[in-house]
Amino acid sequence: MKIKEEVLLEKQGYRLHILPSKKYKTISIVAKFKTPLRREGITERALLPHVLQKATNNHPNVREFQSSFENLYGTVLSSDGTKKGENHVISFRMEVVNEAYLNDQEPILEEALKLFNEVLYAPKVEGEGFDSSIVEREKQTLEQKITSVKDDKMSYANMRLMDHMCKDEPYSLHVSGYQDDISSITPESLYNYYRSMIKNDLLDVYVIGDIDQTEIEKMTDKYFIRENSSNQDNDQVSTSKDVKEVNEVVEREEVNQGKLHIGYRTYTKFGDPDYYALQIFNGLFGGFPSSKLFMNVREKHSLAYYAASRFESHKGLLLVFSGVDPKDYKQAKSIILEQMDAMQNGDFTEEQVEETKEQVIHQLQETMDNANGIIEVLYHQMLSGAEMPVNDLIEHIRKVTKQDVVAMANKIKLDTIYFLTSLEGGE
C-alpha cells in the first residue's frame, strides 16, 4: 500500500500539497493554520472558524452563504481546532464532488476553491470588524459549548487531568476557549485576531482526489492567494517535565459513575526511534479490546464500565480512561497500576506482540483508506520532521520486539492520578 507521490509546492503564503488518487469520487481540500498554543487569544481562535463559516463579502447573509454550497452539488465545509503538541492547529475542510463524474461537467472544483478562498480571505466585514449579529450569535453558541463540557463527564475528567498534569505547560490550555473571555470579545477585536492569524500562522493546504496537478496549480494560483505572509514556521517545541512525585487529585461533583483518568509521561514522540514500540505497548496495555486494561479491569474484576488508553504522539503522554463505581476507586486504581507493572516486567507473550502489531497495522491501513486520514498522517509526519512512505511505517512496526516493548514500558513514568467522584463517593 502506497500513496501516489505527494507533490509539495511553495506558494504565495502557504505550502500546497497535491495528492492525486483515482480512489475517490470526491475531492478533499484541507487548509491547516498552525500557531504556538498561547493563553492570550485562544478563545478568539476557538470562535473565529464559526464566524468565518457564516458569511462572506460576496455572500453576506447566512442563507445565501449556505445556498452557495448547495449549488455546488452539496459541497461540505467544516472546521475544528486541535492541539498538536504545544501548537494550536485550526483545520478547514471542504469536500467537493468530482465534476468528472457528473453528466454536465460543470466547473465545480474551481467554484469551490473560489468559495473556500472567500471564506478564509474575504469574510463579511462591517467597518473595522466582523458582522456584529454573527459574532454575537456565535459567542452564545461557543459559551454553550464550553459550559456543556461538564455534562460530558468523560471529556470533563480528561480536561481536568490535563489541567493538573500539564499545569504551567501550554498543553494544558483549552482549545475550545474560556467562558470568562467571551464577554470581552467584540467584532473589532475578533477581526484583529483574524488579521494576525492570516498574516502570521503557518499554513498548509492539501488537495486529494482524482485530480491533475497542473490544473490544481492553475486554480490555486488564481483563487487561493495569501498576501502579506512569509509563511515562516512558528513551531513551539513540546516540553517533557521530569516527574518528581506522583500527583493524586480527587474532585467531587454530582455524578453516579466515577471517572478515573491517569496520566503518564512517555518521553517519546513521533519521529523518535522507539515510537513504534510505544504503538505496540499501547495496544497491549489499553488500546484494543484484548488489552490488559480491558481484560483485567473490566472483564476479570468487573470494576470498570470502560477501561482504555491512548497516547499523545506530539506531546509524549499516555492517558488511561476508566469509568468506575465511586466505592471501587482504590481497587480499580491498584489494578490499573498493576497492569503497568506487568508491562514493565514483560508479562505478555511473543504471540500477543505479533497480534498487536497486526492490529496496529490494520488500524493504520484503515486510516489510509480515507482521504482525510491520509492528510492527517502526512501532516502528522511533517510536523514531526519524520516523513516516510506508509510501507516504511509498517516495516518499522513489524520490526518491534518484545524486548523493545519492555524497554518502552520501563521508560514511562506515572505523573498524575485524577478521580472525579460523587459528592459522597469513596477516595
UniProtKB/TrEMBL annotation:
It comes from the Bacteria. Gene3D superfamilies: Metalloenzyme, LuxS/M16 peptidase-like. GO terms for molecular function: metal ion binding. Pfam families: Peptidase_M16_C. Residues 184-359 form the Peptidase M16 C-terminal domain. Signal peptide: none annotated. PANTHER family: INACTIVE METALLOPROTEASE YMFF-RELATED (PTHR11851:SF186), METALLOPROTEASE (PTHR11851). This is Predicted Zn-dependent peptidase. The lineage of its organism: Bacteria, Bacillati, Bacillota, Bacilli, Bacillales.
